[in-house]
Every structure is written in C-alpha cells, then in structure tokens.
Design goal:
Oligomer: heterotrimer
Function (chain A): Is involved in L-lactate degradation and allows cells to grow with lactate as the sole carbon source.
InterPro entries (chain B): FTHF_cligase-like_sf, LUD_dom, NagB/RpiA_transferase-like
Protein name (chain B): Lactate utilization protein C
Largest sheet of chain B: 6 strands, parallel
Number of helices of chain B: 6
Distance between the termini of chain C: 72 Å
Radius of gyration of chain B: 21 Å
CATH superfamily of the largest domain in chain C: NagB/RpiA/CoA transferase-like
Number of helices of chain C: 23
Order of helices and strands of chain B: HHEHEHEHEEEEEHEEEE
Number of strands of chain C: 12
Organism (chain B): Paenibacillus auburnensis
Strand content of chain B: 15-25%
Largest interface: B-C, 93 and 117 residues
Number of domains of chain C: 2
Number of domains of chain B: 1
Strand content of chain C: 5-15%
Number of strands of chain B: 12
Strand order of the largest sheet of chain C: 1-10-7-4-2-3
Strand order of the largest sheet of chain B: 1-12-7-4-2-3
Structural class of chain B: alpha/beta
CATH topology of chain B: Rossmann fold
CATH topology of the largest domain in chain C: Rossmann fold
Shape of chain B: globular
CATH class of chain B: Alpha Beta
CATH architecture of chain B: 3-Layer(aba) Sandwich
Shape of chain C: elongated
CATH architecture of the largest domain in chain C: 3-Layer(aba) Sandwich
Helix content of chain C: 40-55%
Helix content of chain B: 25-40%
InterPro entries (chain A): Cys_rich_dom (IPR004017), LutA (IPR022822)
Distance between the termini of chain B: 43 Å
C-alpha cells in the first residue's frame, strides 16, 4: 500500500523525529512510503486568521502536491482536519472543488489510518512509563476522531495510561490565537499543564504537535520534567531486548 | 381592554416589518407553508413501557427534582392529604375548584377553593396566604417528573405559585412518558379549534434557582416544596 | 443596560477578567459541574444527535418562513384580544412599552429575566419615565441591587459574584442581617419580592418561543418568577426577538427539551408555561396582554452568511464549554451576549467598530459547535467574521503584512525550501541554549510563557532524513 506522507510544517521546521517515527511505524506495518516534496502547509494559520484568499494559495498547492497519492497520512489531527474543510472552502469552484473532495476522501490522521485503514491496533510497541493523553480539539471535534489513539495506546506494552481531567478543554494553542491573545492562551495552557501534572504521569502524549509544543513549552518553562511525546514516537518505541535474567529499566 | 393612541396597533408596523423579512429572505411574502415532518426524526422512546414502568420512571425522576412521591388510594386519599398538609406545618389550604375533589369526597375544613365568583383580588389573596395548595394534575410526564395543569375558571394561574407548599394529585392512568405526548395532545386540541386555557403549566417539582454560585437552592419565588400523590 | 456593557478596550476588559480569581473559580466550577449534568440529561433523551438535528431543522424552517409564522402569530394573538406590536428598532420597542405603561399611569413594574429587554434598554427607559422597576429573577435582582452590575452569563447572570459579595449587597442595600448561605439569601429575596409581585401593576417578561398557531408565548424558568410576573399584574407585556417563534406546540416541545437539557442539565425546568391573553372565566392573569416583536438588527442577519446564528435558543451551553469564557468571564466580552454566541452575534448587532476583537477571542476549539443544541456552526461563523474584518482592513498593517507574507511562503515550495534552510541560522541570534529567547513582537507573548526550541538545522530535518534514506537505498 502506497502512503504519501503529509509531514506538516511544524514537523518540517521543528520536530523531525515525529516524521521519522511515523515513517518507521508505517513501513513496519507494510506501507510503501512516498513523500511529495512540493507540499508545504495546509493553510490553516492564515485561514483561521481570516485571510481566506491568501490561504487558498497554500491549499491549492497541497491539492496539487497530493494529486497522485492513494492515501495521504499526516501526524496531526488538526492539519488533516484542515484538509477535510477544503470541500467547504472550494464549494462551487469548478477548478478546485473536485480536487478538494478527492483530497479529503483520501487523507487520514496517522492513528486513524493505522486503525481504520490498516485495521491494526497493536503495532508491537513497548514503552515503560506512566503517560497521559491530550486529545486535540481539531482531531476530536473537526475530524471526529476520538478513539483511535486510545485503541493503539492500549496495546503499547509497559505503558500505563492515566486519564486527563477536563480532557475536552482546549490547551490554548489555537495556532495564531496563542500569538494574538497570549494572555488568555497562557491561562488556558496553565490550567492544562496543571491537569497534566495532577495525573502524575511522566509522559504527555498527543497526536498534534501544535498542542504539544504549547503544553510542553509551558511545562518546560515551569521546570516540570514531564516528557513530551508525539503518539508516532510512542508507537515507534520498542524497549531494548534484554538478555535472559536481565531486568528492564 | 383598549389601548388607544396612534401607533399602538399592529397594522401599520406589521406590514413593513414582515415585508422587510421577506425581502431579506430574497422572496415575496409567504402565505402558505408546509410544515416539515419533524417527529419522524425522533426515536419513539415509548417502546413497550407499561403503566407500572411509567410509575417507576416518575418516582425515580422525582428523587432528582426534590419532589416527594406518595402512593395512595382513593379510599385513603383524604388521610394522605391531611397528613401531608400537617407535615407542611398545617395552616390554611387552597385547592382548585376541580370537580374531582367532590368526586373523591375530599374536604379540607377552613380551606378555600379557587372560584371565579371570588374575583381576582380575593383569589390571589387566598392563594398568597395559603400554606398548602392542592390540585389535580391533567397529565403527568414520567420522564421529567412533570405535572400538566391548565388555567380554568376554577383554577387560576397563581394557585400553582403563591402557596408555600404544593401538592398535586395524579391519577395513575394520566401518566404518560414524556412531554412529547402532552404536547401532541394539546396540539391536537389546537388544531381541532378547541380553546385552550390561557395558561398551560408544565410543573416539575418545587421552584428552585442556581443563581448563587450555581448552587441549587430549592424554593425561590414559587413553592418551597412539591409533593405528588399517586392514586 | 444596552448591548454594550463596557466601553473600554477588549484588552482592558480581558485583563480585568483574568485578574478576577473569584470569578474564574466560579465559572470554572460551574462549567465543570454543568458538563456532567448536561451530558446525563442529553443522554437520557435517547438519540441526542437526532434531537439536535430536529432542533436545527425546526429553527431553519421557521427562519425560512419567518414572515408567515409571525403573521400567523399576530392573527392569533389579536383574535384572543391581545395586542402585538412589531418594533423595527430598539427605540420603537422601548417607547411602545413606555407608552403603554404611561397611558395606564402605572408605576410599579415587575420583570422576569429577558435578554432582549436588555438589548432595547428597557429598564433605562422605564426608570427615566418614573417607574419603579424590579428585576425578579434572583440573579438579575442581585445585579440590580448592586447598582445594575451587568450580567455575565445569559442563563446565570450573576455567575461572576460569590455568596459573600451577594451577602454584602443585600446587607448594604436591603438591610439583610443573616449569613451568606445561598438558601438564606434566596429566602430573603423571596420575601422582599413577593410583596413586589402583589403590588405590581405591570409585568414584563421575555419569551423563549412564541407559538404561532396558538397565539401564545412559552416561558421556560425555574424560580417561578416568570409565572408570577405574568399571573398577578393586570397587564402583561412580553418582549421577543423576532426569530424566537415556533409553528406549534409540537416543535416547542422539541426545542424546550433541547433548551432545558443544554442550559441547566435538567430534563425540563421547573416551570414551562404556555401563556397568552386571558380568556373568559380567568380570574387572574393579565386583563391586557401585549407582545412586542423586536427586529433591532436581526433582519440584517436573516438571509446573510450569518443566518444560522439566528437559530440560537439562548441556552448558554456554548458559554458553559468555552475555554476562553472560562478564563476571561462574561464581562470581558463587553456585551450582554458573551461567550461564543456573543462573539458571533454581538458584532452583528453592534458592529465591528466596537467589537472587532470578539471573533478572535477563540482558539477555534469548536467545543461550542459541538455542544450547540441547534447545530449553529459557531466556530465557522467566527472564521467568517475574521474574514470580513480582514476584508474591511481592520486588522492592522503589521499583521496584514505578516499574513500576506505567510500566505506566499506557505504556498510556495521554493520559498519554503529556503525557509527550511535559513530558519535555524536566522534563529541563532534570537536563541540561547537551543531555545528562542527573543523575537519579533508576533511571538513575544508565546515565548513569554513557554519555552520554544530553535527550528531544526536543515541537515537534521525530516526532509533531509528522507533524502538521505533515498540515497542510501540507491533509488
């Protein structure tokens, strides 16, 4: 199965390890990886700020970049959800509406793809530790994907999950919102960070890098040693094989 | 009942007001409309519920809305009501003028019944000074713990609100599942051109408020307590 | 009160809100407890999503045929001897009501909670005319006693106050002598207000929905003040936004269920009443009934891209789940309509001059859209506002420049390739130990509160890794 990777601009600019982990997991699950190099960004930063026409340029670039793909898979519920908005945005545009629908229909968030397309819930990962999961608003509400991350995390050996209080409250990232209204955003991320700390977890997992940069950045600023992991990194993690009689660390 | 004065009739403003709406909707005024079938969208939750199931549902819900439910029988209804009135601290009682009070042989010495002949001030004064109101429900809605009553010459609106305590007698066969059934029954009457009372009240328990710190306070402007007596 | 409750800048209002720790605790805990209550009441209906769809369809059908249903309503009200008045503006609405009252030489007015009467500045107009006006909803009464403090929530107007603040208000203004328990405070208000009901000459209520084929209004309350307001005075004046109408009792029942469950997590509130002009044989209730239908900017929304905002049934559920409202509170919106729905309709009713920040006061988390019982796409409407504000050139030249540049960058593989190459070296001057410590104004708020790593070096990037792999595999 050929899978085109939609890396997202945050992964391109900030967190290559997430892209790498995603590719390694998908390959392990038998996918053939393709990377359309002309991709840039889904257009969400400008779209959510109200700059519709400027955003359409970015969106058109993405529709063309993935035109020949069978499946488009990205490590971000939010960016993939943006793809899913394209048909609404290009509704009635004779040149682009069909392309928008096509892209929507073949694009999946990473965990969604594994569970719903590949039909796999156990990717053979193992990770010792206690973690909590932050569900991103766009992935759960706009993309409508609530379950797949949990289905996959459930099968990660050694990983204990703690529920996160108020998990449906936004972390305050909201793309340009956090830049435009930093004071409000700060209070939101503060509350989210407290909820994360209350779980006692030593790892915070999410399927969206934006939220993780936000919550992780806040936790780090407060000197809290919570480890931030994208779910692709968790699913790519394997505990080292220990010689007989040895103990796991 | 007249309001004189130049602009106090709907005629002049109404036309331009409604014309504006039509033009904003980009069409001519509409004089006929087909109501879409909404009810078919909604699941029929009645299923195979029996009358006993409905009573159980009603009782359970009443627990959540701070409403006491007492099961009684016509033979002992008088005593049940007397005990409840006593438990409310006695005092004066006001009932509706519902013929069912006579039919069940109910009497409350020294009490008043709402009556058209007494007129506005006297009825309101009696209700205001009553410690307990006793009325018969037209329907009860199990799911929400609601009684339905309609204003009539022998049952004014404020009877349900002014007395400190409120007792509604519910004949078990008048329990239906939800507000859906009550609304449908009332709507059938409207469509048949039958007049409805000027006030239809769906009452679910005592008055309450969460305006202070979202903490529930039972007993605000209306009754401080509500009791349903099932017969 | 008018639509606008605070003329200061949005940023000043927000700073006040963020600094009000009591308010934030109150709103936070209210949100948390309502969440569970709302969910269980919604689930109890069976298929909540289908009920939402039914609610949406009812509202859309009514809006599409609004002239028809209003005309039917008017005919039925008048047939019963009631009066109906159509007010295009808030001035028309409030002066009609004033004139009715002045003509009767009535002075004593009781009111039950109504947002639209706030919008038409009715209290102000009636007090100017010499009336003694009492808000009887407990929350509104508290605010009135506190020198007309503005409401901060459309269902729980005094949500921003704690019991001690309320105790202080009652002590200072009403000679209350007891402690701060909500029960005692409420019982005290009951006693004071009971007398007001009995003396009142005119009762003014809002209207949750008018029922067109019946010629009646529907009030949904918990305290019982709405019914007393309509039952005791000889004149009842009800005021409704023109879109708050249903065809029949059957549709009303669907919307009332959605409303009660969404607003307060009750299956039905304590009092749901359908009332209208009195009929022969009535001994209480109004001898004279007026219904005032208010446009005041609504018709401009009708048929526009914001049409769906008119579906709103004022349940407040979007406020109760909004993470922004949670932290800044209702007053920060500067409008009687706060929260997500407020951020959508306030700029429509009050204009962008005063309210252009509101549509941006959202992280677009879509919790509002998800919870709305009549499926208003609230977060999408906020984006539409943002687009209009951008089109009208109201976002400032700096932001504009940055966004235009971002638009070009994000659509050009070549420019983005250069960015990947230069982002790391360019960030060196702004960074310390791999973290960005200073930067353009745009990101200062961000890095003020959070650590942010430098962009990755090009040779370490994901794309470089892919290229390297490709090279190694000999493709």
């Amino acid at each position: 199965m050929k899978v085109s990777i939609f890396s997202t601009c945050l992964v391109d600019l900030m967190t290559p390890k997430v892209g790498i982990a995603m590719v390694e997991v998908l390959e392990r699950l038998g996918c053939e990886i393709d990377y359309p190099a002309s991709q840039v960004c889904c257009g969400q930063p400008t779209y959510n700020s109200g700059y519709l026409e400027d955003s359409k340029l970015a969106m058109k670039n993405m529709m063309l970049a993935f035109e020949s793909s069978d499946y488009v898979v990205g490590p971000s519920g939010s960016c993939v959800a943006m793809f899913h908005e394209y048909p609404k945005i290009f509704k009635g545009d004779p040149d682009w509406e069909l392309k928008a629908i096509t892209l929507k229909e073949k694009s999946y968030e990473f965990t969604q793809f594994i569970v719903k397309v590949l039909g796999i819930t156990d990717v053979g990962a193992s990770l010792d530790g206690t973690a909590t999961y932050h569900r991103s608003c766009h992935m759960t509400r706009l993309l409508g994907e609530k379950e797949t991350p949990f289905q996959l995390l459930e099968h990660v050996k050694g990983l204990h999950m703690e529920p996160l209080k108020n998990s449906d409250n936004c972390c305050g990232f909201g793309g340009t919102f956090s830049v435009k209204m930093p004071d409000i955003s700060e209070q939101m991320v503060d509350e989210k960070s407290s909820c994360v700390l209350d779980t006692g977890a030593d790892i915070l997992i999410s399927a969206d890098m934006g939220c993780l940069l936000n919550i992780g950045g806040r936790l780090s600023r407060k000197g809290e040693p919570v480890k931030i992991m994208h779910i692709a990194e968790v699913l790519n993690h394997r505990n080292p094989v220990i010689a007989k009689g040895g103990s796991q660390t | 009942m007249t309001v004189s004065g130049n602009h106090h009739t709907s005629g002049n403003n109404k036309e331009s007001f409604l014309n504006t709406i039509a033009s904003k909707l980009g069409r001519e005024r509409r004089h006929e409309v087909q109501l879409p079938d909404i009810q078919s969208l909604l699941p029929d939750s009645y299923g195979s519920l029996t009358q006993d199931d409905l009573i159980d549902i009603l009782k359970e819900q009443c627990f959540f809305i701070h409403t006491q439910v007492i099961e009684s029988k016509p033979e002992i209804l008088q005593r049940t009501l007397d005990d409840l009135i006593e438990a409310n601290g006695g005092g004066s009682v006001m009932t509706s003028g519902d013929p069912r009070f006579a039919a069940y042989g109910l009497k409350f010495p020294g009490s008043f019944a709402w009556e058209e002949a007494a007129g506005r001030e006297l009825n309101i004064m009696r209700a205001e000074s009553a410690n307990t109101a006793v009325i018969f429900a037209d329907y009860a809605l199990a799911e929400s713990g609601t009684i339905v009553v309609e204003s009539r010459p022998d049952q004014g609106r404020s009877l349900h609100f002014l007395p400190a305590h409120y007792i509604a007698v519910i004949e078990k066969e008048r329990i239906v599942l939800r507000s859906t059934q009550a609304a449908a029954a009332l709507n059938r009457r409207v469509q048949a051109g039958e007049p409805l009372g000027s006030s239809i009240n769906l009452i679910s328990g005592p008055s309450n408020s969460a305006d202070i710190e979202m903490k529930l306070v039972v007993g605000v402007h209306g009754p401080l307590s509500a009791t349903y007596v099932l017969i | 009160m008018s639509l606008q409750t605070d003329k200061r800048d949005f940023s000043e209002r927000t700073t006040d809100g963020l600094g009000d720790s009591f308010m934030r605790n109150a709103v936070g805990s209210a949100q948390d407890s309502l969440k569970t209550r709302r969910l269980s009441a919604a689930t109890a209906l069976g298929d909540w999503e289908q009920w939402r769809t039914a609610g949406q369809q009812i509202r859309q059908h009514t809006l599409q045929n609004l002239d028809y249903y209003l005309e039917q309503l008017a005919g039925n009200i008048e047939k019963k001897g009631g009066h109906i008045y159509f007010a295009a503006t808030k001035e028309e609405a409030s002066s009609y009501i004033r004139d009715v009252i002045v003509q009767k030489k009535a002075k004593k007015i009781v009111k039950s909670k109504s947002m639209v009467t706030e919008e038409i500045e009715l209290n102000h107009v009636l007090i100017e005319a010499g009336c003694e006006l009492i808000e009887t909803d407990l929350g509104e009464y508290i605010l009135q006693m506190d020198d007309w403090d503005p409401p901060s929530h459309i269902v729980a107007p005094a949500l921003h106050k704690d019991r001690r603040q309320i105790q202080r208000v009652f002590t200072e203004k009403l000679g209350y002598t007891d402690d701060e328990s909500p029960e005692k405070l409420a019982r005290f208000a009951r006693k004071v207000l009971r007398q007001k009901f009995l003396e009142a000459e005119v009762g003014i209520t809002g209207c949750n929905f008018a029922v067109a084929n019946l010629g009646a209004i529907n009030l949904v309350t918990n305290e019982g003040n709405g019914d007393l307001t309509a039952a005791i005075p000889k004149t009842h004046i009800a005021v409704m936004g023109m879109e708050r109408i249903v065809p029949t009792l059957a549709e009303m029942e669907v919307l009332d269920n959605l409303l009660c469950r969404s607003a307060v997590g009750q299956k039905l509130t304590s009092y749901i009443t359908v009332m209208g002009p009195s009929v022969a044989g009535d001994t209480d209730g109004p001898e004279e009934f007026h219904l005032v239908v208010v446009d005041n900017g609504r018709s401009d929304i009708l048929g526009s891209e914001f049409n769906e905002a008119l579906q709103c049934i004022r349940c407040g559920a979007c406020l109760n789940v909004c993470p922004v409202y949670r932290h800044i509170g209702g007053h920060a919106y500067g409008s009687i309509y706060p929260g997500p729905i407020g951020a959508v309709i306030t700029p429509l009713l009050g204009g962008y001059d005063d309210y252009k920040e509101l549509p941006f006061a959202s992280s677009l988390c879509a919790a509002c859209t998800d919870v709305c019982p009549v499926r208003i796409p609230l977060h999408e409407q906020l984006i539409l506002h943002r687009q209009n504000i951008v089109k009208e050139n109201r976002t400032g030249s700096m932001e504009r420049f940055q966004m235009k540049a971002a638009g070009r960058l994000l659509s050009s593989p070549a420019l983005f390739g250069k960015t990947l190459r230069f982002a790391h070296p360019a960030s060196r001057l702004m960074s310390k130990h791999g973290r960005i410590v200073r930067g353009p104004e745009l990101i200062q708020g961000w890095i003020g509160a959070r650590d942010l790593s430098q962009p990755v070096k090009q040779q370490d990037s994901f794309r470089a890794w892919l290229d390297k792999r490709k090279g190694e595999s000999g493709e």
